[in-house]
Specification:
The complex is a heterodimer. Chain A is α+β, with helices and mostly antiparallel strands. Helix content of chain A is 26%, strand content 12%. In chain A, strands 5, 6, 7, 8, 10, 12, 13 and 14 form an 8-stranded mixed sheet that branches. In chain A, strands 1-2 form a two-stranded antiparallel ribbon. In chain A, β12 and β13 form a beta hairpin. The longest helix of chain A is centred in the C-terminal third of the chain and has 34 residues. Chain B is elongated. By secondary structure, chain B is mainly α. In chain B, α1 runs antiparallel to α2, α2 crosses α4 and α4 packs antiparallel against α5. The two termini of chain B are 36 Å apart. Chain B contains 6 helices and 2 strands, in the order βααααααβ. Chain B has a two-stranded antiparallel ribbon with strand order 1-2. Classes of the chains: A alpha+beta, B mainly alpha. Chains A and B meet through α1 and α15 of A and α2 and α5 of B. Bound molecules: protoporphyrin IX containing FE. Protoporphyrin IX containing FE binds next to α1, α2, α4 and α5 of chain B.
Chain lengths: 537, 213
């Protein structure tokens, strides 16, 4: 009996010790930390009721008058706004001022702003940027309302350089735009909510979900399945809960400038912008002993926790300009009900539940301008993430890659800026359907040469995927990357178990194993046959 | 035919470590090759978790084994010798087919023939140690900076670990087969369970006996 007990105890210790370590059922520290951070539901207390300000009860003739009224109290606001990316649309890290949608940057959507302003600047937080003569220093040109009004009735007309309409107007025969009730709108102002940001950021590229892939109208009222942070049945975050603001500068990446210089948690610096996952979750968010904690120095949280993007609404994955112009072609609806073609724009491919493309990313994205020389023999990267395996600030990060066929100057080997929007006679492609005229007009407007010969080149444009964080049980499983043909099969510069091997070693190894098996089989057979032989004798 | 006798070859701890170690190595091979992507059984994540715990368990057991071998003086059983080595090789490559007796007798003091001595010494001192060493470093990958080990290269380490894994697998195949070459097909295996092995009567040469001092 004693012996049995002793043996039992011995074996239990031996076999069970790994379980002891595994059995710890704590809550993940990163979760706990973040829960505490947001525990005290921010009571948005204010000391001013805007509906009682006499100045907001005046008869407003034009939207600039509203801005003037705002500035009569908030006398620093326009000065702050004028310095922000939301106003300049230019990459502050580019001393030449050429990078940015307000500069000469190109993408593979509507390509570039210059010469198309009145259409594009309907998403500018200002009034009247209709051409390159726009005065960026004018205080009352700032549109306070689009970010701050809370009635949901204030709409900038799509082609009026940021202005709302003055009379009821139809857009493309589908949507009616009404002149705003400026008193109601101005008296409603508050901190920006999702719909304020979403007005532009859900519809980038001129339509719902065209650009981002992780930002579309489904993010106005998401559930937890779509976004654990913003889900109205969960944390119910506004955009500004993470995109914290400092003098109207909203935290987030700006072209080649990462969203945050470092990855500090609020415990390390209570004034750190809350823009990184680490800000609230720390650098070791998973339960103790979980291998995932060892990954946080190389793999971004987003890579595992956003298994696919565009999970509710589809997003545009490809835009082929080269087929545009066929006004007779029948337009079909794809499986998502989206048109596959537009004579003004060419062929489209939409996607839903898309698996991201992964790249090393240190938070900076560089882009091509219409001045850069390109190599048309390979897909031209209109934008691309910076970073590699050796960069300590880089993480493996998920991206939407939007591909396209986009016009370029065949002789000068640069991308071109076509004039797309404008009246007949201006050369605008959408009015005259003549690429040569459109490119010539656009290039001239932007002070750029054009050889007169164009063609279309394969292009790529990247969007970091960071919203639509899924519930933890849907996180990407280890084997989806640790596999021969997994999600990370394109990445280089590091060894990864399950994915990598040395072909020769595997071949040699299995040859050795095979030879051993064959050897013992033959040896055994030999013994058997010889023993049978001996017995006969 | 010669008379048979039973001798007590393997003490309880020896038998214990042998079977636990063999189980661990079997499971390490299984989980290791799943980690390598050769097949799917437990799923990658579980395979990694099991592999790590099994590996660490094995290292702890191995420390006890080495301690036992050193303190009991059993290490003398592993001193390599070339005496009769070629006779043993000759036996396995031809004598065995002719029904000749094994050229080296087993005894309590000499339980390994010269070929076994070489094999087990190489296995324990080189192959298994290398496998545990590379495995441990692999496991510590994320702490290399703390231990000033950043000069290491994960790819190279993985290559060594994998090459050793193949060698161990080949060893296991041959080793298991060799257990059938005893007095009867199962007498070697039975001995590793009971400790007692039935051998043919015979002289044990003096040189084979490791005298205790
Ligand atoms: C019989 C002994 C062992 C065998 C046959 C074996 C086999 C393998 C194999 C085939 C791999 C995959 C290598 C690759 O593709 O990169 C592997 C990975 C690994 N082994 Fe072992 N191994 C053994 C012992 C150990 C020991 C003692 C440890 C120490 C804890 C260890 C730790 C590891 C680790 C950490 C990995 C990488 C797993 C990961 O994080 O993905 N192994 N092993």
């Amino acid at each position: 009996m004693h012996k049995l007990v002793r043996r039992g105890a011995f074996w239990s210790v031996l076999l069970l010790w790994p379980m002891v370590a595994l059995a710890a059922t704590e809550e993940a520290p990163g979760r706990q930390l973040a829960r505490q951070t947001v525990k005290n539901d921010a009571v948005k207390w204010i000391t001013a009721d805007h509906s009682q300000h006499p100045i907001l009860k005046q008869r407003f003739e034009k939207p600039e008058d509203v801005t003037k009224a705002c500035l009569s109290c908030h006398n620093q606001a326009s000065l702050q706004i004028h310095k922000t990316i939301h106003w300049t649309w230019k990459d502050p890290s580019d001393p030449k001022g050429e990078t940015g949608k307000g500069g000469l940057s190109v993408n593979n959507f509507c390509i570039s702003v210059g010469s198309n302003e009145p259409r594009c600047t309907s998403c500018h937080i200002g009034y009247g940027w209709k051409d390159k003569n726009f005065d960026f220093t004018r205080a009352e040109s700032v549109d306070c309302l689009v970010c701050h009004e809370q009635t949901g009735t204030y709409k900038k007309f799509p082609t009026k350089a940021g202005y709302p309409v003055t009379n009821a107007t139809m857009f493309e025969g589908k949507t009616e735009f009404l002149p705003p009730d400026y008193n109601a709108v101005a008296q409603s102002v508050g901190r920006p909510g999702r719909n304020n940001c979403g007005t532009c950021h859900f519809y980038g590229g001129g339509g719902d979900g065209v650009k981002h892939g992780d930002l579309d109208s489904s993010m106005a009222m998401p559930n937890k399945q779509l976004d654990v942070h913003m889900g109205t049945d969960g944390q119910n975050f506004d955009c500004s809960r993470c995109h914290t603001t400092d003098a109207h500068n909203i935290a987030g990446r700006i072209y080649a400038t990462p969203a945050s210089a470092d990855r500090k948690s609020l415990l390390e610096n209570d004034l750190t912008p809350k823009i990184m996952c680490e800000s609230c979750h720390g650098a070791n968010p998973h339960k103790t002993n979980q291998k995932a904690n060892d990954h946080t120095d190389k793999v971004a949280c987003q890579s595992c926790h956003i298994p696919t993007f565009a999970r509710v609404n589809p997003t545009k994955m490809r835009w082929d300009w080269s087929t545009a112009g066929d006004k007779g072609r029948e337009v079909k609806k794809d499986e998502f009900g989206k048109p596959d073609y537009d004579a003004k724009k060419g062929d489209f491919v939409w996607g839903k539940n898309e698996v991201p493309h992964y790249e090393w990313f240190n938070g900076a994205i560089k882009g091509t301008t219409a001045k850069d020389v390109i190599d048309p023999s390979a897909p031209v990267r209109m934008s691309w993430p910076i970073g590699d395996a050796k960069d300590p600030n880089a993480r493996i990060f998920p991206f939407k890659v939007h591909t396209g066929k986009t016009p370029y100057d065949k002789v000068r080997k640069t991308m071109v800026i076509p004039k797309l929007f404008g009246p007949k006679g201006s050369g605008a492609y959408w009015a005259e359907f003549d690429w040569n005229k459109a490119i010539a007009a656009g290039q001239e407007y932007n002070g750029l040469p054009y050889s007169g010969e164009y063609d279309f080149v394969e292009t790529q444009y990247v969007f970091p995927i960071t919203h639509m964080v899924a519930p933890k049980d849907q996180a990407v499983r280890c084997v989806e990357c640790h596999a021969k043909a997994g999600r990370l099969s394109n990445l280089e510069g590091f060894y990864m178990p399950g994915r990598d091997s040395v072909g020769l070693l595997d071949m040699g190894g299995w040859a050795l194993v095979g030879a051993s098996l064959l050897g013992v089989a033959l040896h055994g057979l030999g013994r058997f046959l010889s023993s049978v032989g001996r017995r006969r004798e | 035919m010669k008379a048979k006798k039973k001798i007590y070859l393997y003490t309880r701890f020896e038998r214990f470590w042998h079977w636990v170690q063999s189980l661990l190595i079997f499971l390490l091979l299984l989980t290791g090759f799943e980690v390598h992507g050769t097949f799917t059984l437990f799923g990658f994540q579980k395979a990694v978790e099991y592999h790590n715990y099994l590996g660490l368990t094995w290292i702890i057991l191995f420390i006890f084994i080495v301690f036992w071998v050193l303190t009991t003086g059993e290490w003398r059983q592993y001193i390599p010798t070339t005496k009769k080595l070629f006779e043993v090789i000759g036996y396995y490559s031809s004598g065995i087919f002719k029904g000749l007796p094994h050229p080296v007798q087993k005894s309590k003091e000499a339980k390994h023939n010269p070929l076994q001595r070489l094999t087990y010494l190489g296995l324990t001192a080189v192959l298994l140690t290398l496998q545990m060493g590379t495995g441990l470093l692999y496991w510590l990958y994320n702490d290399w900076a703390i231990w000033n080990l950043t000069f290491l290269d994960l790819r190279l380490l993985a290559i060594i670990h994998l090459a050793c894994a193949f060698a161990i697998l080949a060893f296991v195949i041959i080793h298991v087969y060799m257990t059938t070459t005893g007095h009867t097909l199962t007498s070697h295996i039975a001995a590793m369970f009971s400790g007692w092995e039935e051998v043919e009567e015979g002289e044990v040469a003096d040189w084979e006996v490791q005298k205790k001092n």
